[in-house]
């Protein structure tokens, strides 16, 4: 009996060792296959020319699958796709968008005639920004799209939290419902950009140009918008609570139903702006803002004097900011 028991133990141990060896071999084989796919995809992604767009698309889809299959390779894939977008986006580094606002109406007088970004750029950005098809949120802290021409790009609903978009041109882009929390938007151009329902809470947008942008139903709670330009922008039903709007230019902007409760509007330009049904603490909110006889205010809010923004109290408040 003892000999039989020892024999069974040895046999079971040998079986377990063989099973472990088989699993390790399968893991190494799978990793080798991923490495082969990775290498082939990089080679295909680097093939230039309009006649190779299908090859590049195949490479992007393969890299997207690798990002899904291998958490260890995900940061490298993100970096490669980010570099591809930066290098191959229209015009390379972001080109400035010329001012084209009719000051009387806020409408665009001359349209940019550039073609939309190529389909391979769209595909790469979709792979970077789409988290729904992944088992968890991809690490987007490595996404570097700085100084990139992204005009007219479609990023609706994409997750770009913590992305580096510094100095990029996103004019005419579609960012409807996008998540931009924690993104670096320093020096970004957002002329005519669709940002409806986007999450920009806590984002630093100081000095950013956002003329004619559509931000209705967006979340801008706690954002910094000091000296930002939002002329003729649409901000209906927007959460601006705890937002810093000091010296922002909102000339002609639509702020209907927007939450401005308790927001300091020191130096904010509101000439020709529409604030009907906006939630204001009281007329004190507007005391140090710029308004004119065309500024539309909530019925319960008294119109401040035209020179109220220059009275001693407002000057003192500004001095405290320095």
TrEMBL record:
Residues 94-115, 302-322 are annotated as: Disordered. Transmembrane segments: none annotated. SUPFAM superfamilies: Pentapeptide repeat-like. This is Pentapeptide repeat-containing protein. Residues 306-316 have a biased composition (Basic and acidic residues). Pfam families: Pentapeptide (PF00805). InterPro entries: 5peptide_repeat, Pentapeptide-BTB/POZ_domain. It comes from Micromonospora ureilytica.
